[in-house]
TrEMBL record:
Record protein name field: Lipoprotein
Signal sequence, renumbered to the chain: 1-25
Keywords, ordered alphabetically: Signal
Tree of life domain: Bacteria
PROSITE patterns, per database record: PROKAR_LIPOPROTEIN
Length: 124
């Protein structure tokens, strides 16, 4: 089938004109949401809870006879938190062991005292 010269021009013009319609040309995709989008609306973590969780974790590892993970910095604890952890471990061993709840109760009480004395994120 042969198109006459004028018909081919009309066909090409119709195709090109059709892309002038809004929405024909694809708009660039929207960027993906930032990974921080979910975090921005999240309230900051409670410092006492953060301290408690770290001390509890490492005190329980030590009381269970777990691997020695090195100094407090390798455990992501401050020196104050590490002293608290060591005291809980000493007390637990002297008592013949602590339950998880006993470790948590002692860690939380100790972290409350530490943060009341110095709420800063001091490593010492």
């Amino acid at each position: 089938m042969r198109l006459r010269r004028g018909s081919a021009g009309l066909l090409l013009g119709a195709v090109l004109a059709g892309c002038a319609v809004p929405g024909c040309a694809a708009a660039p995709p929207a960027p993906p949401p930032s990974p921080l989008a979910d975090v921005r609306g999240t309230p900051p973590a409670d410092p006492v809870e953060v301290c408690t969780n770290g001390v509890v974790h490492w005190a329980e590892v030590d009381l269970a006879g777990g691997q020695d993970y090195g100094d407090y910095q390798q455990r992501a604890l401050s020196a104050r938190q590490d002293r608290l952890r060591a005291q809980i471990v000493r007390d637990g061993r002297a008592a013949g062991g602590f339950t998880g709840e006993q470790v948590r109760t002692r860690a939380r009480a100790g972290c409350e005292v530490l943060l009341a004395a110095d709420p800063g994120p001091s490593g010492y």
